[in-house]
Amino acid sequence: MATSMVSLLAIVLLCNFALQPSRAQDFCVADLSSELTPSGYPCKAASSLTSDSFVFTGLEAAGNVSNNIGAAVTPAFSAQFPAVNGLGVSIARLDLAPNGVIPLHIHPAGNEILLVLKGIICAGFISSSNVVYSKTLNVGDVMVFPKGLLHYQINVGKYNAIAFASFSSPLPGLQIVPLSLFASNLPSFVIEKTTFLSDSEVKRLKAFLGGSG
């Protein structure tokens, strides 16, 4: 009986391995003219690719930090850098003016690792147990932010700060909590009930961030 069970298990495992998809190609440069699917973009024909298809040159310029939050993010995700499609990696540049902030946000589909290139940045995240992990980062410091957890970056220095963020997904996703609440048309009474903020404070924040409702 035991021998039969072992033989059956071996057959099941062999069938399972046989059914696993093999890596049929080295890369899948995104065809942005096609629709995005749950598994990413369809691939461009390899015959249409050149060396330039695997190079992105959009991170050399500073982002525009003349806005309400004093910060800018320049992404190199699949939509901007088609070569990362399907590879499980991407990168973005962060520019922060003095006192600039990347507000509390999450990346639902990717872990993040942040490298500070210029300035002083206070960064942190909140675990699902509501424990805060915060650190003041200097040039050369690196901090990781696990997927799906609220986190932030603040320029606490006197000059502009620059950092590069790498992600474990070509489409890490982004939801900024203050913008979701106060730059949307979510009714004010819902925000007041769910955040315990006063009506006047909700209206002030909606006016500041451009929300309605």
CATH fold title of the largest domain: Jelly Rolls
Label the overall shape.
Answer: globular
N-to-C SSE string, H for helix and E for strand: HEEEEEEEEEEHHH
CATH class of the largest domain: Mainly Beta
Q: How many beta strands in the DSSP annotation?
A: 10
The CATH architecture of the largest domain can be given as: Sandwich
Major β-sheet strand ordering: 1-2-9-4-7
Give a quick account of the main beta sheet: strands, pairing sense, barrel closure.
5 strands, antiparallel
Portion of residues in beta strands equals: 25-35%
Which percent range fits the helix content? 10-25%
Number of helices: 4
Unreliable runs: 8-22
Question: Mind telling me the CATH superfamily name of the largest domain?
Answer: Jelly Rolls
Q: Report mean pLDDT, rounded to a whole number.
A: 90
Q: Rounded to an integer, what's the Rg over CA atoms? A: 22 Å
Helix-strand category: alpha+beta
Count of structural domains = 2
Distance from N terminus to C terminus (CA atoms, Å) equals 69 Å
Binding site for Mn(2+): 105, 107, 112, 151
Main location: secreted
Subcellular location: Secreted, Extracellular space, Apoplast
Signal peptide: 1-24
